[in-house]
Design a protein that fits this description.
The structure holds two protein chains of two kinds. By secondary structure, chain A is mainly alpha-helical. In chain A, 72% of the residues lie in helices and 0% in strands. Chain A has 20 helices and no strands. The longest helix of chain A has 52 residues. The termini of chain A are far apart. In chain B, a hairpin with a 2-residue loop joins strand 9 and strand 10. Chain B is an alpha/beta fold. Chain B starts with a helix and ends in a 21-residue tail after the last strand. In chain B, helix 1 packs parallel to helix 13 and helix 12 crosses helix 14. Chain B has one domain: Alpha-Beta Complex (Spore Coat Polysaccharide Biosynthesis Protein SpsA, Chain A), CATH 3.90.550. Chain B has 14 helices and 14 strands. Classes of the chains: A mainly alpha, B alpha/beta. At the A-B interface, helix 1, helix 3, helix 6, helix 8 and helix 10 of A face strand 3, strand 4, helix 13 and helix 14 of B. Chain A: InterPro entries: ARM-like, ARM-type_fold, PBS_lyase_HEAT. Chain A: This is HEAT repeat domain-containing protein. Chain A: Pfam families: HEAT_2.
Chain lengths: 346, 500
Amino acid sequence: MFELFSVTMVALLVVVAGTAAGIVVVRIWRRVRNNRLAALAAGPRRALLAFVADNGEEGSEDLIAIPDDAWRASLPAALGLLGKLRGDAHAALVSVFLHRGAARAALADLHARSGVRRARAAQLLGDLELREAVPDLCGLLTDRDHEVRVVAVRALGRIGDAKAAWRLIASLDQHDPVPSLLATHALVQMGRDAEVVLSAALDHPQARVRAVCLDALGLIGATGAVGRMARVLAEDDILDVRVAAAANLGRLGARGALKPLVDALDPPAPDLLRAASARALGDLGAPAAVPALAAHLDDGEFQIAHEAAQSLRRLGGPGLVELRSRDNDHCREALALAEPELVGAA
Amino acid sequence: MRDFVLAVLRGADYAVFAYFVALNSSYLIMIVLASVEFAKHLRRATFAGADDMFRSPLTLPVSVIVPAYNEGAGIVPAVQAMTALRYPRYEIVVVDDGSTDDTFEKLREHFDLVEVPRVVPSEVPYESQVVSVHVPRGDKGSLTVVRKTNGGKADALNVGINLARHPLVCMVDADSVLDPDALLSVAKPFADDPLRVAACGGVVRIANGCKVVAGRVVDVRMPRSWLVRIQVVEYLRAFLMSRTGWSRLGGVVVISGAFGVFRRDLLVQIGGMAHDTIGEDAELVVRLHHYLRDRGEDYRVIFVAEPVSWSEAPSHWKVLGSQRRRWHRGIAEILTKHRHMIFNPRYGRIGLVALPYYLIFELLAPFVELAALILLPLGLWADAIDIGFAWRFALVAYGYGLLVSLVALFIEEVSFHRYPRWSDMLRGVVAAVLENFGYRQLLALWQVWGAAAAWRGRPAVWGTMHRTGFDTHDPTPVETVGTPTSGDVEAAVGAPKSLG
């Protein structure tokens, strides 16, 4: 037993000393590497900042001429800028990346064995807003790696080509789909060109797809889809989808949304939908909604009465008149938020 | 008879040794799992999409709930710092839990608060009375301050949950300093996997010794006191490494009350924070597992290592003792309350792996440590073991513990490199050694005391937290005595351990 203990002690001593030495080695290696990278990147970083400051009008040749090792050292800064810039400066920086062969390499990397490389490539192609990459990026929507699919969706959104809308919607109807919010944002970035596809997808059998399309239609302001959205609000089998329809009808602010939302305020609509409709009527901004909302200020369901009061507040003038005429906690709260200077300042 | 007693003593010594080896091996496994997770996280940083999340109009808004009890010393800078977090849409709900100092007055003066009538729903139960609700004059809902009668941290959080308007709820201690991107990072898993992520915790690090400017930690340094330096190493091992490892295994049962995000609808469904335990934050997560497993839901509770909440650690032995008694009491209460989940296959990894682990290697560890301190000398005295065995036993057991701490420091160095000064890293290594001489043993004593208090049903006593603040070193005693109240509350289960 003693021997075992002794051997273990020696082994422990060696490993402890090795770990301590490892900390020192990592620290020295990090310092040396950082110094080297900082020295290499210093020039290119200055050139990049000058280039961006000039809105990309001058200095692109200097950036293209930077040696590969120095460019690699400054790549994190360049990619950071690429993701943040918009307009002419972005276009100019994209042209620098294209001249350096970044797009070609990224397109090749989309088929790499490593998921990290595929995702990085997709991210870069999205940042470059390269429309030629859309078919390949659509291919990644069914990638085996969830993270790659997520990056592909973001990249397609950044590129904003509505041709990818249907593929993106279809990718929601698969096992382990990409997050709904991410898909919605990408579809919104595709703009009004995607409206027809989104509107058609409201008949998709998958509830999740219908909900995403409703959100996207609401956010892009697709007023032409009000009729179809109202039908979903009234008839869909899934409560969450109906709630999404109510919220987005309110967001659209179209006159045609008033009646379907008012109809959804009353039973037999479920309470969750009634509350969502009350909130949506406030977003709609139509003074004609005041009587319907006022009728629910004393609703037995907390959330419905609360949303009705808050919506009346958001409707302004006529809504505030109605709130002032009631002796109700929800009304007092809504009025206080509308006119905080009038209450409890002492 | 004597031979039998000697054999029992010898056997007990060997059993204790085997326990130490198993315990430290489990820590080492967690650290290895954590390092894999860190590597994965760092490789993915370039395409994680944090900027996209920040820009997206669809990013889920968050209600940040800040329970405060006698936090007058630092409440204004804390709230100021929270208002400057990088996140597209969030509100801050400060719940003043019946403070007897000037916590509210300072908030009112600084933020120009006006009282508003507000209907507080009772979606989750609370026992105290809401006195008043205040918002800054002309504010559009970014800050709400609630005054209530004292009811404890759990009660304050429940009031905050009731008032929260957003689908995600972030619980933050009033004395915490968050990194600017902390909220963005800890809420990101909800954006990436909104259907399954039920809760997400962020790492808590020690702020003592760090330079804090305008509510931001701008210079990370080791604290001046060796007592706190030892805690820094403990936090790295237990909070950062262990919880990241558990996250990889799908067995997170602790999200610190100092920094965690939850889906509000789930909090409402499970009834919010429990009033009957001192470790209400950990109990909440265990109850969440219980609820979701019972319903057969596909869900995830995860821990992310990158967003950091900086908290002040006790710099006095007395305060540390009080804290550790409280934490271990929390472990005992939670494991007792949810004992039917332990070794129960119905609860999957939580019932078969995570909770049994916390029972054997968290709750029982200080008992075994103390047993070792008694059995080893006893064995020597009774000639059950000889001196050669005893010192080898001690060296191997403590040496393995030291190795675990050093590996944690190594992984920290490779992954995050938060302590850039050579002197700070050296102090960390020395602290890992010093931890074994008196600190662990005293901690074990306090922990046994805490667990015993839970089982005997004694009322919880929270002691006094001396806040030194982050910028100044003027001790500002903050009273947190009596029944459970808000203040320096930390996760009970998975707290830094004295063994290893």
